[in-house]
Amino acid sequence: MLSPLIAAAALTLGLQDPVQTPPPPAEAPAASSPATPADDAPPAPEDTGLLTWDDLPEALRVEVETKLNKPPAQAVLMVEAAVAPDTDFRTVDHGDVLSEQTVRPAAFATIVAPARNGRKYGPAGAVLWAGINEDGDWWCWRNGDRYPTWFMPSDIYCYRDTDNDGDFDVTMENSMPETGLGQSRFQFTTLGRDERLRDVVTYAPGGQADFVEKVVLRYDGPAEARVAPDGRLVDGVVLFRLLTGPARPVPVSEGNALVRIERAAGGDGLDEVARIAVPLDAEGRGRVTDPRGISIEVDRVDLDGRASVKLTSGLPAGRTLLLPPPTRDDFLAMVNRMIGRSPA
Fold first, then answer.
1. 88 DSSP assignment
2. Cα–Cα distance measured from residue 275 to residue 97, given in angstroms and rounded to the nearest whole number
3. How many whole angstroms separate alpha carbon 289 and alpha carbon 298?
4. Where is the composition biased (Low complexity) (predicted)?
5. In terms of DSSP bridges, do strands 97-105 and 108-113 run parallel, antiparallel, or are they unpaired?
6. What does the radius of gyration of the chain's CA atoms come to, in whole angstroms?
7. 254 beta partners
């Protein structure tokens, strides 16, 4: 997890005051021959005020490098089909949907020899779905007997076969799945803690479960910008929200374990995965392609927030991760935001 390292970097670097050194005394100019192009020094890079990789302490760089380009904890998804790209710009308002794609787990496995507490850890024949984190591949299960009307979302248990011998060697328990993608039946953002399960659990590849959900791209609106004389927004940022889940309200239970009162939940059955920011230039136009393969063009944003946009690609069909592995640029951007040095 990068979050503790981001906080540590922000605290260390954000509290540092630059050392003020007096300027050196001026020297008398020395006679020299006229400068030639070969003698001209390259211009110094523009100081943007943003922290760079070289500004970080060496020990922090070494620790961060061990976690970069490795996926955070999540379910591995299979995107059923790509979206048809827009052939022209369309007008969208706050909350309008640009795309909706169907996803399911990318692979399944089946428990052969279960743990003694099969109701908790999965009985024989239980279908597991594919997960991943920075350590590698996992197989995950949860008791879905009462889904989607469960009183409390059941815990998610993920297993890892570190030596590929058909026996699971590590079991993780996510006891708070509702804190991540809480409306999803099989998606998550953390593996939780080591369960230290001593029972031998074996598995076999293959299986099938009817786990189907949606990934939705929705227009959120402008975040910041200047207003040009013609009323369009320029030199700013507009936001799009990437959401996922069952795409239908999940009933919410009230009461206690003995008496439950079920009512329809509000919302749309979707949780936010990420916000995609499209920077606007001096003409009010912008374009971005994010690491997931989503590509958006913005031609104009008006003062009321309505925008003329074109979705040139959504999630590609096939295996995908909704939470891409973090890069150096991602880490630096988060640290700069935390210490108030984000670019305008």
1. S
2. 14
3. 12
4. 28-39
5. unpaired
6. 26
7. 261
- Tell me what pLDDT residue 341 has: 73
Which phi and psi angles does 177 have, rounded to 5°?
Answer: -65, -20
Q: What percent of the chain has pLDDT over 70?
A: 79
Write out the two tokens for 255. 């009461």
pLDDT score, position 130: 98
According to the 3-state scheme, what is the secondary structure of the chain?
Answer: CCHHHHHHHHHHHHCCCCCCCCCCCCCCCCCCCCCCHHHCCCCCCCCCCCCCHHHCCHHHHHHHHCCCCCCCCEECEEECCCCCCCCCCEEECCCCEEEEEEEEECCEEEEEECCCCHHHHCCCCCEEEEEEECCEEEEEEECCCCCCCCCCCCCEEEEECCCCCCECCEEEEECCHHHCCCCCCCCCCCCCEECCCCCCCEEEECCCCCCCEEEEEEEEEEEEEEECCCCEEEEEEEEEEEEEECCCCCCEEEECCCCEEEECCCCCCCEEEEEEEEECCCCCCEEEECCCCCEEEEEEEECCCCEEEEEEECCCCEEECCCCCCCHHHHHHHHHHHCCCCCC
Instruction: Give the pLDDT confidence score for residue 42 in this predicted structure.
Output: 57
pLDDT tens for residues 59-97? 989 988 888 889 999 999 999 999 999 999 999 999 999
**HSE (side-chain half, CA atoms, 13 Å) at 145:** 6
Q: What is the pLDDT of residue 83?
A: 97
Average pLDDT over the chain reads: 85
Q: Is the pTM of this model over 0.85?
A: no
**Helix axes of 3-14 and 58-65: crossing angle, nearest 10 degrees:** 160
CA angle 285, 320, 102 (to 5 degrees): 85
3-state secondary structure of 207: coil
Backbone angles phi, psi at 63, to 5 degrees: -70, -40
Query: Which pLDDT value is given to residue 251?
Result: 55
Collect all residues with Cβ–Cβ distance below 8 Å to 227 and sequence separation of at least 6. Answer: 233, 234, 303
CA atoms within 13 A on the CB side of 304: 5
pLDDT for 241 beyond 50? yes
